[in-house]
Amino acid sequence: MGSSKRVDYLDIAKGILIITVILCHSDFPFAQYMYWFHMPAFFIISGLLYKNKLSIKSQATKFFIPYIAFSIVDMALTFMTNPQDFSLPNIVYYSYEHIYAGKMMPGVFWFIPCLFLTKVLFHYGKKLLSNQALIMLLIGLYVAGHAFVLATVPENVVDITTANYIPWNLDVLMITLPYYAIGYYAKDLLKFVNNKITLIISGVLAISYLKLNTDLQIYYYMNIKYSEFRYYFLDLLVPITFTIFILSISYHLTQLKHLGSIASFLKLAGANSLIIMYLHIPLNHYFETLFNYNYVIFTLIGLLIPLGLAILINKNELCEFIFKGTSPSSSSSSSKSHSVRFAH
User: Is the pTM here over 0.70, yes or no?
Assistant: First the structure.
């Protein structure tokens, strides 16, 4: 499988996943099922894209220059939505929320610090430990993470209090590191996603999980941000199955010429998923003050406006640096459109 084709279908997969993220923040009636897989899938795909050479300075720039920029945009849109809240104390408080991140910060800002730490810690674990020792450590973290959640985190998200807030969601690393590692160690298995049998089997399994939950009332729930991962076996089986299914769908979309426009749009969304991630909630909060609408309009606003802004950002090197963390040298290269993505 060529590297270009590989990037294409991984971008398509991220495009599908970022749409599920938007839907989960709308009134979409089936949002709870998307929490089963979309965040684990982003960490798994990020692991698939891991490269042995890693510069902390470069990664910090890619992650946190846009984080700061979009934090300012987020606060600006928040005050536009609620102008009566504009005050120096609120500016200080909202800034503190963005710095603390994790469960304290509403929306999706928790993801960036968590992914950054996941990537850096995995890199140094791989560098300093033998392969066997690293795998054993990751298994230990996975087990410890579930034990920690079962012992300390309320079963219902609405019952979580400030006592459960941890800066940068450090507790969540106990599950994101194993997901990231699964992606890394599964690189050689990527060739199987192009098989139709993989698409069929993973699709049947994914549908069967949904049927078991809806028809037989076999309860399953996951929400990584709020440390809601309680099922040692299912928290591997369910997200991995859905991730394989989405990767397989994405690969086969690249092979269907009559669906080329859909594949191209999803690829564009995946390549700009970072901007969509940051903007879809504050934009919708603002527009919801102007008129009422359902999850379809919510998704279109959260997807199309950020994509339009991304196209404009891509035309200016300074804007790319501020909002994508892309240095001028890399933005002028042939891989420009793939420099910084949600799951990198």
Answer: yes
